[in-house]
Amino acid sequence: MSNIEVINPFSGDVVFSEESESLEEISSKISRLRAANIAWSSLSVHARAELIRNALSYFRERRDGIASAITSEVGKPVRAAAEELDFMIERALVMCTLAEQGATSPYAIAGRDDFQGRMEYVSKGVVYIISPWNYPLFCAINGTICALLTGSTVLLKHTTAPSVGRHFRNAFNQMGGIENLLLDAVIDYRASAQIIETCDINHVIFTGSVQGGRAIQTSLANRANNDISNPFLTYTLELGGNDAAYIAEDADLAHAVESTVNIGRLHNSGQSCCAVKRVFVHEKHYESYLAAAKDAMNAHRFGDPTDPSTTLGPLFSREPAVRMLKSLVDDAQKNGARIVCGGHVVSVGKTLFIEPTLLADVCADMNVMRTETFGPVLPVMRVSSDDEAIRMVCSSLYGLTSAIFTRCRSRAEQFITQMNTGTVFVNRCNFVDARLGWIGYGQSGNGAVSLSPFGLQSMSNLKSVNIDPTYLSQN
Predict the structure, then answer these.
(1) Which residues form the Aldehyde dehydrogenase domain (predicted)?
(2) What is the CATH number assigned to the segment(s) 243-426?
């Protein structure tokens, strides 16, 4: 078995070291989760929602400590880590309300004397969730809350931020006198693949890279060839993105800059699957956008993530991630792009940073426009029309989100209609609302829905009930 290590991205210190659990240990956990699923799924959705609401107080009471641990493990600025916790609780509460409002209520079909029918949503069983490091609380709660609300139990792998797995176990493992509702797993990639291929689970949720998604698909295919009772699993893939924003000729420029730079690109140091990674600006605003975006980027402070004044923490993958971004910037410059600001690699403490970098005069075929960039680099391309912008936005193999900034509703609706992304933003970006489904197409996912009433339905199995009441008594 391998050893799981987590390195503080800023200090370089090892902050977690533990041997990967064996498949036998994980199988024992899954058996306990399977047993707990029977009692948990028998509760009403209102009872489950109320118990989950009570469990969320665990996070409120430990807010600062949880945020500090996240900062140590993934390098997220401590203020941002605390804000993520606050919004995670808010997101979970919204989902509890949606569940209580009847998202998974039975669907009754008008009957006849000899027919009564309904469709019921029932628990999947045991859900295996593989969660990433970039939004350790958000991504973990998205699947966890939908699974628990719909009566399933959860095995959570959070190897890159193990403190989050531990806190989720402490908060959700025992509710309403039922134990083993959520257990965490500290395991390596090999053990994770074995879980999918051989263990008694019912659904897999993976949030991560396209490469990781392909590995999950391979494991699912291997499972289908095994002689086990449930060879075909349902699954959810939430993968990467190369998301684009279009600044139309009638956009509110100040708002567009604030949104695309501070929220769209630089939030979480640019390490977001739905970050704005390409900007297309109508030629009317191009130079003005660049000037304002430069000022916005230069206002950020990178460095020690424990310092409350830091807005950009280190990149999680440290020097390799910085070098990759630097190579994309250099390649773009070599091929005619102009560096408006940034572009340099800077050493701070024991790690490297790349300055917030704004690139102008880019072309659609440059690597920086075709690659999912996880970091503070923003390429900006000039366009002359809505049609050109739409064509450029849709040229990506990814399909997570897209955005338009405009004052014209008809222009916005035309943009929405032509997008092939799971989410389309109008006058905002990089913003998840739990009332709306989160979906990825193309290389961004398999089209499965998380969050929203549809996410609760997606995390349930359907059962058709077909009754001939002629032979039933009224008892």
Answers:
(1) 3-465
(2) 3.40.309.10
**3-class DSSP string for 57-107:** HHHHHCHHHHHHHHHHHHCCCHHHHHHHHHHHHHHHHHHHHHHHCCCCCCE
Residue 292 in 3-state DSSP? helix
**Domain chopping of the chain, boundaries:** 3-239+445-466, 243-426
Burial letters for 172-200: b for 16+ Cβ neighbours within 10 Å, e otherwise? bbbbbebebbbbbbbbbeebbbbbbbebe
Single pTM value for the model:
0.97
CA distance 170 to 158: 14
CB-based contact 346:352 (threshold 8 Å): yes
The tens digit of pLDDT for each residue in 335-371 reads 999 999 999 999 998 999 999 999 999 999 999 999 9
Tens-place pLDDT, residues 270-318: 999 999 999 999 999 999 999 999 999 999 999 999 999 999 999 999 9
- C-alpha distances in angstroms, 456 versus 95, 133, 313, 321, 436? 8, 24, 34, 35, 11
Confirm whether 25 is a catalytic residue. Answer: no
Closest CA to 157 of 198, 115, 193, 125: 193
- Torsional sign, CA 99, 103, 106, 108: positive
| Superfamily in which the 3-239+445-466 domain is placed by CATH | Aldehyde Dehydrogenase; Chain A, domain 1 (3.40.605.10)
Q: What is the pLDDT of residues 223-232, one digit of tens each?
A: 999 999 999 9
Query: Is the torsion defined by CA of 415, 416, 421, 425 positive or negative?
Result: positive
Residue 356 in contact with residue 300, Cβ under 8 Å? yes
Given the residues 73, 238, 249, 355, the one annotated as active site: 238
